[in-house]
Amino acid sequence: MKKLLAGLALAAGLLAPAAWAQDGASAPASAVATAAAPAASAADAAPAAAAAAAAASAPAEAASAPAVVPNKGDTAWMMVSTLLVIMMTVPGLALFYGGLVRSKNMLSILMQVMVGFSLIVVLWVLYGYSFTFTEGNAFIGGTDRLFLKGIWNNVAGTFENAATFSKGVAIPELVYAAFQATFAGITGCLIVGAFAERAKFAAVMAFLALWFTFAYIPIAHMVWFWPGPDAYTSAAVVDATNAKGGLLWQWGALDFAGGTVVHINAAVAGLVGAILIGKRIGYGKEQFTPHSLTLTMVGASMLWVGWFGFNAGSALEANGSAALAFMNTFAATAAAVLAWCVGEALIKGKASMLGAASGAVAGLVAITPAAGNVGIGGGLVVGLVAGFACLWGVTGLKKMLKVDDSLDVFGVHGVGGILGALLTGVFNAPQLGGPSFPVDWFSGTLTSADAYSIGAQVLVQAKAVGVTILWSGIVSAIAYKLVDLTIGLRVSEEEEREGLDISSHGETAYHK
């Protein structure tokens, strides 16, 4: 425990230096929202454009307009979505991972998920939300919301609002902060599957604190931070307002619910960890079979249900965009399950329960960046391709890399996340049934089929993928090294053979 506290202290010390200095003054977090250029329907865009034009022509009336009051339906939906993402992490991801490890390590993986999630949620409240979703520079936010200060407005006697993707529409900022906390939490927990059954518990917690601070926060800011639609008050301020967004948002990268921020980010960190920590004792010589596919099936099912909050909740409103993300999450996942089973049957002669569960997760991962950014047909294609691609990721690619990625984090989340991010650029195209995205956030006019370039958007998506891989890879390598020097990454051979449940936690999942 002393080493764990020392590791966390190290993370806090690294946060303090002026390396995080901002380019300009911070703006209130009430002006923020998530996702790069999310899908908006033409019906939604027209009223927004009209409202913006009216506001520009009558500034005196706009100045006297009453403050935006959050819609109770939107607020309720976002609170339910937050609960769904908590469920998909603890217990969903925990049981999915737990069933895949050997019985002597069951509790260790449950602990790493539950305690890791809790650690990141606390860090999110302390500084994560502020550095992610307030105005700073293209790479990192500011300090306006440290400890969530300022979310309660003492003068108005109410909570501040957070912007959605519609002009004049908001949700309580506190609800928004809670929703985003669950994203940060599950992303860190995804990583632990890559080096399951051999890492020290204290080392895992220290690494998660470092990685969350220096990898998750900057990537999330770069992809998802922007000033919100109400900041676009006239055509003259569009360029200046765009410049306040995160780097990848400025580039026009599309990531509806976390293909880059969550899945690629976590998968790269997991892959680096699996390489640096090394293979499990007996890997390649002994059979490492899942101890309970029943629990894995239960966990995968909870992930699927919870993912509706993850993806559809990222619309930030109970509207058509949320419905599109909901249906895509439904259909693409089902398509991926079928694709994986067909692929397995062709390769091995039989379809397996493990394959069906893995296919579901593969589809969920791939559709995440695309959920509200592609049409239903595009979503089905994303799911089908992901099922086959991720099957190759956990078989062919894994053999090529020769890495003991215990629970196939990179094969599923890395391959699926990259595939989904790239195909988002393809199927967002209106000529392929996609919803497109606004030309600018003042007019609200959507990119037309003639103006949309699939090649150009895929290139932007590829650049965002590349930045995420490099950033997460470099930060992860440094963080693992620091933890190894201070705490040590791996348990002893004796402890590994005994099992982490007993050696690390002094208890067992099953009593004989």
Automatic annotation (TrEMBL):
Keyword Heme on entry: no
Swiss-Prot/TrEMBL keywords: Ammonia transport, Membrane, Signal, Transmembrane, Transmembrane helix, Transport
Signal peptide from the UniProt entry: 1-21
Entry keyword annotation includes GTP-binding: no
Cited InterPro entries: Ammonium/urea_transptr, Ammonium_transpt, Ammonium_transpt_CS, NH4_transpt_AmtB-like_dom
Domain Ammonium transporter AmtB-like per the UniProt entry, residue ranges: 76-510
Annotated membrane topology: Multi-pass membrane protein
PROSITE patterns recorded: AMMONIUM_TRANSP
Record-level Gene Ontology MF annotations: ammonium channel activity
Localization terms from the record: Cell membrane; Membrane
Residue spans crossing the bilayer: 76-97, 109-127, 174-196, 203-226, 256-278, 290-310, 322-342, 354-372, 378-397, 409-429, 464-483
Gene Ontology CC: one annotated term: plasma membrane
Family statement: Belongs to the ammonia transporter channel (TC 1.A.11.2) family.
Entries under NCBIfam families matching the protein: amt
The protein's name: Ammonium transporter
Organism: Pelomonas aquatica
Classification lineage: Bacteria, Pseudomonadati, Pseudomonadota, Betaproteobacteria, Burkholderiales
